[in-house]
Amino acid sequence: MKDGFLDKLISRLDRFSPSEVQNLVSRLVREKGFMENVFESLREGVLILDPEGVITFANSATNRLLGINTAKSIGQKVTAVIRGIDWQSLANPNRVVSRDMEVFYPENRFLNFYLAPINGQVRDTEEHLGYVMLIHDVTDSIKEREETIESEKLNALTFLAAGVAHEIGNPLNSLDIHLQLLNRKIRKNDELADDSKADLQNLLGTAQQEIRRLDNILKQFLNALRPQTLDREPTALHKVLKDTLETLEAELTEREVQVSLNLVDNLPILQLDSAQIQQAIYNIIRNAAQAVASKSGWISIESSFNDHEVVLSIRDNGSGISPEDMGALFEPYRTTKEAGTGLGLLIVRRILREHGGEIEIDSEAGEGTVVSLYFPRFEKRVRLLEEPDADKPLIDVETSK
Ligand SMILES: Nc1ncnc2c1ncn2[C@@H]1O[C@H](COP(=O)(O)OP(=O)(O)O)[C@@H](O)[C@H]1O
Ligand SMILES: [Mg+2]
Questions:
Q1: Checking CA distances to 210, which of 241, 262, 268, 325 falls within 20 to 30 Å?
Q2: pLDDT value for 166
Q3: Which pLDDT does position 397 carry in this prediction?
Q4: Counting Cβ atoms within 10 Å, is residue 152 exposed (0-12), middle (13-18) or buried (19+)?
Q5: Alpha-carbon span 336 to 330, nearest angstrom
Q6: Ligand 2 centroid vs 173 CA: distance in angstroms?
Q7: Do 134 and 45 meet the contact criterion of CB atoms below 8 Å apart?
């Protein structure tokens, strides 16, 4: 439709014959239909509003993005349809605004909208006709941004932690050597009676054991935190699981926690870095063991698989996680334990992601927790996207009726 076409048409209406008017009207309707079809075919939401913010058109994408019932919304104020929008401060006939918003219905998404005035010539004077609001889904790019920030945080943290751990390693080493020297001196000291020698050596042995334990923790910590290239090999996940349970055995029996295994037969072999996966499973089972009550606590471990992935679920009947804590589970240093580091889950997720997998946590406060680890069965090189709906071409060009 050319600029001013309508104006000219109206001013000359009396000069047209009825058949010419009919012709023109049907052309107008066709052009309106064409524009509506174009709007309908857009993935962006399109709302057309009059100067007071009353909706005169809404395409179907607004339904998907905002849950707007397109038919019912026509004639309603935009403030009634998009609750929380501050129309007074946004609407300005001389200015274009672009803003982000978070919507919670029909699903939690981040949208960016762009509100532009429509100004046009009406009978030779410039008039403000209303607004067009274009709504664009930016959820994915915001998520990506968050993930980047998160991984930068983790990198900074890794650097710091590795430095500290390294600094602790040196005095530990020196302590170990000095205890060995002391041990030798005791052994060679003739002034000491045999039983007091044994006593002293016993004490020294305990101290040495504790130092080795610290050293071990430190090594594991560094191992898990350092960004590592994966050393993948065909691995039986059940074997890694059983090895992990062995290292936890002392702790589990001491607290009298029941562990039951429910493992499938013929679990496919996976390409895993078994040391890192062991670290991941260790962290999860340890969390479960710390969450359950001693004596009545149980942990149940289950495996399953389908064509695409292998799943290992660790379920416990422990304290569970409150909805408030759920949102911050993967934040570094977030811990509800007196001696916790708040790094365990973060490390687990990093290891899983490096393997192309994911971790999922499902929990109810007071009831217990299920942590599921998903491992892809095949390395993904290409991901075929779903074929678009064949009945619904992206642009509907069937307008010439
Ligand atoms: N199985 C579980 N049951 C209850 N709470 C859990 C469980 N696993 C993790 N959590 C919660 O998540 C927090 C973070 O866990 P994690 O990252 O391993 O750090 P840490 O164990 O050092 O606290 C824990 O402090 C705890 O509150
Ligand atoms: Mg932990």
A1: 241
A2: 74
A3: 40
A4: exposed
A5: 13
A6: 26
A7: yes
Task: Please name the helix (run of DSSP H) or strand (run of DSSP E) that holds residue 193, with its range, or none.
Answer: none
Is the distance from the beta carbon of residue 211 to the nearest atom of ligand 1 less than 6 Å? no
Q: In this predicted structure, what is the pLDDT of residue 63?
A: 86
**What's the CA gap between 91 and 274, in Å, rounded?**
59
Q: Determine if ligand 1 sits within 6 Å of the CB of residue 322.
A: no
User: With left for phi above 0 and alpha for psi between -120 and 50, is residue 69 left, alpha or beta?
Assistant: beta
> Which residue of 335, 346, 364, 367 sits with most ligand 1 atoms within 8 Å of its CB, as the best mutation to test the pocket?
335
- Structural contact between residues 165 and 204, judged by C-beta atoms closer than 8 angstroms: no
**pTM for the model:** 0.53
For 337-381, write each residue's pLDDT tens digit.
Answer: 887 778 889 889 988 988 989 999 999 999 999 999 999 998 655
The pLDDT of residue 398 is: 37
Residue 239 host element (H or E): helix 237-254
Task: Tell me the mean pLDDT per 10 residues along the chain, length 401.
Answer: 65 78 81 82 89 91 85 89 84 87 81 87 80 89 80 75 78 89 91 91 90 78 68 95 93 94 96 92 95 95 95 97 90 81 85 91 95 87 52 42 34
- β-partners of residue 102 are 110
The amino acid sitting at 231 is D
Q: Are 371 and 364 in contact (CB under 8 A)?
A: no
| pLDDT computed for residue 11 by the predictor | 76
CA-CA distances (angstroms) from residue 212 to 31, 122, 200, 341, 344?
A: 81, 86, 18, 20, 21
The CB of 335 under 6 Å from ligand 1? The reply is: yes
Residue nearest ligand 1's atom 27 by CA: 336
Cis peptide before 388 (omega within 30 of 0): no
Strands 298-305 and 309-316: antiparallel
The predicted pLDDT at position 385 comes to 56
- What separation in angstroms does the CA of 116 have from each of 98, 190, 333? 9, 96, 45
Q: How far is the CA of 287 from the centre of ligand 1 (A)?
A: 5
CA distances from 150 to 184, 331, 353 (A): 50, 9, 13
The one-character DSSP state at 152 is H
